[in-house]
Amino acid sequence: MDNTASNTPDINELRSVPTVSVEEAGRYLGVSRAFAYSMVRAGDLPVIRLGTRRVRVPSAKLLAMLGVEVSA
């Protein structure tokens, strides 16, 4: 039994929210949580910092990275 479909992120869901967690962004990009955080540290994944520890990835920026047109 193959359950990849349930693990595949939905682009329409991404369009419906302003930001996602770094872990969620990693799933959209097809990379591990650890690699997604290393992308944040390297400045390769744009984030919004909320306080000293919490970071969120803007959905519009992530969609652009994925090559998906952002609708107005």
From TrEMBL:
Do you know which InterPro entries this protein is assigned to?
Answer: HTH_17, SinI_DNA-bd
GO molecular function, a single term: DNA binding
Superkingdom classification of source: Bacteria
Record-annotated Helix-turn-helix domain positions: 21-66
Keywords, sorted A to Z: DNA-binding
Pfam families, per the entry: HTH_17 (PF12728)
- Recorded protein name is DNA-binding domain-containing protein
Name the species this protein comes from. Answer: Gordonia neofelifaecis NRRL B-59395
The uppermost taxa in this organism's lineage are: Bacteria, Bacillati, Actinomycetota, Actinomycetes, Mycobacteriales
